[in-house]
Write a structure and sequence with these properties.
The protein is an alpha/beta fold. Helix content is 45%, strand content 18%. It has helices at residues 27-39, 50-59, 76-86, 101-110, 122-130, 146-160, 165-172, 176-184; strands at 4-5, 11-12, 18-23, 42-47, 64-68, 70-71, 74-75, 91-96, 114-117. α1 links the parallel β3 (18-23) and β4. α7 (165-172) packs across α8. It holds the Pfam family HTH_8.
């Protein structure tokens, strides 16, 4: 009987593998995450677009899915909706580089199980996918700092305003020059 090495203490046999769909338009990230999740006992299928992910969901609904919120050809929320239509029991984690409350609420409303800001490591993702209903996953080892959360929020609003500094400053109730200084700096370290 073949076994997959998960860690030094746990072995998973192929019939115990859990089917996982990883959806991200960054092919390198998608491949790295797929390999990491395979090491944690998941049988992984990859998709790099909304169309590919929806087709995979309809063809053979997975038990688990990790979906990037922003994809080149649309929204990850469309993938979540297709996964829910294919199998309402699929456990779905949304990943995004732009973590904010509004998108987290939208993701949960369409059926996501959890929502994690990038960069999330494979252990965090596996914990979020496999947590028992009603339980909360453990807190992250290295959560984003308050400065990083603020910077991410400003970047998200800036992108939503089509990179218009004046409109972004107005919506954030911030002076335009202050916003320009913030945008000129690199992201704060976590």
């Amino acid at each position: 009987m073949t076994t997959l090495q998960m860690d030094s203490q746990t072995r998973i046999t192929p019939q115990d593998e859990r089917r996982l769909l990883v959806v991200d338009d960054d092919e390198r990230f998608c491949s790295r995450l797929a390999r990491a999740m395979e090491q944690r006992g998941f049988a992984v299928e990859q998709a790099t677009s909304v169309a590919d992910a929806v087709a995979a969901a309809r063809r053979d609904p997975p038990e688990y899915a990790v979906v990037d919120l922003r994809l080149q050809d649309g929204s990850g929320l469309d993938v979540v909706q297709a996964l829910r239509e294919a199998d309402e029991n699929t456990r779905i984690v949304i990943l995004t580089g732009y973590g904010n409350i509004a998108t987290a609420v939208a993701a949960v409303k369409v059926g996501a199980t959890d929502y994690l800001p990038k960069p999330a490591d494979a252990d965090q993702i596996a914990a979020a996918l496999t947590v028992e209903d009603g339980d909360l996953p453990p807190p992250p080892e290295n959560p984003m700092s308050a400065d990083r959360v603020r910077w991410e929020h400003i970047q998200r609003v800036y992108e939503q305003c089509d990179r218009n500094v004046s409109e972004t400053a107005r919506r954030l109730r911030m002076h335009r020059r202050t916003l320009q200084r913030i945008l000129a700096k690199y992201a704060p370290r976590d």
